[in-house]
Amino acid sequence: MRASAYRFSGRGRRLAARCSATEPASAGTGGDEKKVRSKIPKAPARSVRAHLQGVPLDHIVKVPKAGVGLASDGTQTAHGLNYHHAQNAGGEGYYFYMPTVSLMGPGALKKAVRDMGGRGLGKVLVVTDRVLREIGALSSLTDLLDEHGIAYEVFDEITPNPTSAQVMAGVEAVERLGCEGVVSFGGGSPHDCAKGIALVCANGGHIKDYEGENKSAKKMLPMVAVNTTAGTASEMTRFCIVTDEERHVKMAIVDWHVTPDVAVDDPELMVGMPPGLTAATGMDALTHAIEAYVSTASTPITDACALHAIKLISRYLRTAVRDGEDLRARDMMSYAEFLAGMAFNSASLGYVHAMAHQLGGFYDLPHGVCNAVLLPVVQLKNAEHVPDLFLDLAEAMGIEGLGEAGGLGVAERAREIVIRAIRQLSRDVGIPENLEALGVRREDFEVLAENAMKDACGMTNPFQPTKEEVVEMFEEAYAQKH
Questions:
Q1: Which of 21, 298, 302, 366 falls between 20 and 30 A from 386, CA-CA?
Q2: How far, in Å, CA of 101 to CA of 236, rounded?
């Protein structure tokens, strides 16, 4: 609204006149701050709360009496959002983690490389995989680096589910080639490996030393993460997932020091993504958003990010899978995965990821596919503990008509419809329907469950399952049908 659109009452005009007449700090005082302060009326010596309680606004703001048109804490509010956060009274507040700089939209890569050239960054190690190099996708980055005179070396030894050995090989390459920074190009695997490389280069030791939360002492080497998929959000989060090939487990490194300095999400780089990869990464993003929303560490900020991500994914993922050339669908999916990343970067995740990490580490399976298969099973259990949240999930997924519950409670109806919608979306984009189809062995469920219960991602799940309950969820995911 323009300033001229405001209208003041008589009291407001007098107050505005007094404010505009106040002398600036340097006016007529010779810079003497004490003289300026002496002209400012002193407020009564009482608390801010007491002062605010004395402000006479009742003639302007008409607050309904209790029970008249007001939703109480813990109930569904007028706009349909269930408040489900711990009050944290007397606590120390919450963290909300953000990437340093994010460049988004068509053409973002050009701007990012131009900015890199202006910062005088020395030689960089470009971390990617052989497929992106062989199909020519990497040239979209290297051509720009050449154009702006940025020296680089390519390290393309990354595989899906990067290993600790690959990280340490990258560390050796940085030291041998004299690189001063790292640029990752690809999806979650190159990003995570690059994070591990940059972290060890700055802190020393072995990547295994940093498993867990905030184990490093120093920020990693300067890093730019150029994203070519719409799913992991690793380009902007404090999460780094690396497989320990000796233990056959995925190590979760959760550390603010592994947040890239610059995240680049250019949908033009995602147009060539094949349908299967589009589907898997899109379902990964959906899992991030749903798990962050029901997380015990969620906040109103992470809720806003998560719910809008769910809305965008529900609307655009099918189109992106069906028509990879649809730039609008690609653009909206890049925003969706970024929003989901903003949500789980602070709210963390849940037992879908805790279990999926074990499948990826044990069988070297695609992370997004594992998430997609496990998502409806775990959320069905979660709904028993946070049923009202599924009303919001249903709304975000575009589901209507919950008022017609057909004999079921509204929350129970929402739970059934949300689970059905997740399974329908998985079927529509070609996700296998169960763990049996992925070659998972039932005899491994005991050890998989044990390892899942050690995964840091499970700490913020709405409930903490027993080992038997985790095995049961693996069993259900093994046999489920779309």
A1: 366
A2: 9
336: tokens are 């969706």
- CA 82 to CA 389: how far, in whole Å? 6
C-alpha separations of 299 from 19, 333, 461 in Å: 37, 23, 14
Joined tokens for residue 331: 């653009």
Domain boundaries, the chain: 101-269, 275-479
The second-level CATH assignment, the architecture, of 275-479 is Up-down Bundle (1.20)
Q: What are φ and ψ of residue 65, in 5° steps? A: -70, 160
CA 265, CA 186: separation in Å to the nearest integer?
11
pTM: 0.82
How do beta strands 239-244 and 249-254 pair?
Answer: antiparallel
**293-330 pLDDT tens trace:** 999 999 999 999 999 999 999 999 999 999 999 999 99
